[in-house]
Fold this protein.
Amino acid sequence: MNAASWGWLVLLFPLLGSLLIGSTFRILPARTAGLIGIGAIVAAFACGIAAVISLQGEPAESRHVADSLWQYASVGGFQIDLGIYVDPLSLFMVLVVTGVSSTIHIYSYSYMESDEGYHRFFSYLNFFVFSMLLLVLAGNFVLLIVGWAFVGFASYALISFWYRRDTATKAGMKAFVINVVGDIGLVLAAILIFRELGVVDYQAVFEKAPEVFTTSNEWTAVAICLLLLVGAFAKSAQMPFHTWLADAMEGPTPVSSLIHAATMVTAGVYLIGRAHPLFELAPAASDVAAIGGLVTLLVAGTIAIAVTDLKRIIAYSTMSQIGYMFVGVGIGAYSAGFFHLMTHAFFKALLFMAAGSVIAAMANMQNIDRMKGFYKAMPFTAAMLIIGALALSAFPFTSGWFSKDEILDFAALRGGWYEIFVIGGYIGAFMTAIYSFRIIFRILPGPPCEEAAQLIETGHVVHGEPVNPKSGKPEDTEVGYPGAEHHIAEQARGMKIGMSILGFLALFGGLVQVPGVTEVIAHFLEPTFEDSALAGMHPTTAESWAGLAKGGVISVAGIAFAWLLYIKRPDIPGMLRRRFHPIYTLCVNLWYGDQVIDFLILRPVKALGSFANRVFEPFVINGLTGGTISVVRSAGGAVRDLQTGMLRGYALLMLTGIVAIALYFLIRSA
Amino acid sequence: MAIEWYLVLSALLFSIGFAGVLVRRNPVVVLLCLELMLSGGALALLSFSRLHGDGDGQVFVLMVLVVAASEVVVGLGLVVAMFRRRIALDVDEMKELRG
């Protein structure tokens, strides 16, 4: 079997799993549904590995296969195939998506155990994985849009999974609407590509693009790339489309872990990587991507230091880390960007899982001000949290250390004004270390809080009446919401297995790409990016290690600073907060992103709507329809009197008519 | 004999029938008058058939008779139904189609 056949199988298993669980949920026992879900993803992962093996057997220059099942549409020279494109980049994404999904499915198997919506959850989750795989395997821009929209829907369905929780349904709608804005950008980009090039297949587009987009119409290419970026920014929650991601934390924690940390939000990075031949023809757009990433990584870092909701801290750190990836692919450090995507998927999924365990022990409380002393109560979760935080803050020899600094090294190599990415990146790294260890130092040490103490004493987690912290309403557990039975990693085997795998990968996953020693990722992705103008640009081994040393120092300094702030002198944060109150308010209010959108978009649209309601509708619409109605009605009233219902009257009229016609012809013929 | 006489008689029959339809209100009489009108038409057909010396008109008249018989069956059936339901036998009373 060739790589393309394996690629189709990769798509098949999650789709089958989703349909099977979704259609037989009435008769299927809950555990079986969970096992089917896990099995489908693991099978997809295995097929992904088989595809890699079969592709690596080819010589480097022919390591890409396009395959089509059937023709999707063919109208007047416009041809779309239902086709996939298998190359190192798409397989890399397939492996990351299915690999991380497998562990998260195993984790969810235990985590969602007390939830009434167990089948629904696994059906959605499998559907999400299918959509994401469709997105990365699509062979043309049309199918890419299909996958893109599918993941948007899956994200919506899973954020609003607890659909009786009004904050969750609102968050789902918000995520969906902002993503639709991005979808529009993507669709417009595809239309523009078709108009300029007449094709939508990746290979054909990238072949034709350099001939069509010469210096004379460079701005068309820039326009296409900027429209693609609208889609990428919205999906990856980059400024200014970032506001939905924090609200998306209303969904179950495995969802945050899978969709809003490890896979879906990195789709924007994939899009830029996939369309890199276009972006290289439009350097201005690439710079926009990189600058957008830089701004986001700095802003999100400051927010993550200020907010107190455990999951939101991690969500903002996700935005910030995706900012690094955007910088990476924006400046042309493709393999470094994707390497960071992979390691980030490992440690961020792990952090979310550990956070889920803590949140379950707190009976769904997410405020870190209330958490304390979990080190003793949950040693396993604590260890995983620490591993995740170390990797996130790029502590030496963890996976994040290798990947993050590789991006910054490349920026330094490009020199010139690209130095701002180095400086900004290191500032961001310092903040990353602070906020990741803020979590650790706030939650783990110290005297145990009420919930942790109860866990130590009785070995049971608290059974609080679940209350929505945002609206203060009691949660409805009837159709899905973890009831009184919470599950934490210390006691649930599935959660432990899932976290152990990711913990191992978060610690050692970076070793696949050590400068000068092993460069697995770079070599694997080389065939995809070898046409790049910057492909030959590599930092030397010495430069890489110098960068890594710098990164390590900054990371350790950040951790030490966090220790100073949150352990040694816990009074300092409060003091700083009072001293720099405006800045703190700005950060804790998420830099007023929601308010800006509200002011710039919602208010004008609302004003337009109320204008339409007050002026346009009563006068224009009602005038038109009401006018038509009254004309027809009065005309009808005028002729209805003729309809007497008198049979003899009708007969007389008939006779008169016939006589009149007869007379007419008689007179004419005479 | 000249054809005019036949045609005058036919027109007379038709007009008498039509006048009956117009002025009488009893449905039975209206049906009778309709038959009169049909006979007027039939007489005209027969006269022209005789004038042209072929049988087409006579075939037509047979058709008209069949149609007339069927029409009387339906019409009288309606009258009987009205009678049974104690509906007044007056065509002017039946004007549900009034607009």
Q: What stands out?
A: Residues 593-640 of chain A form the longest helix (48 residues). The two ends of chain A are 94 Å apart (CA to CA). Chain A has a mean pLDDT of 83. Chain A has 27 helices and four strands.
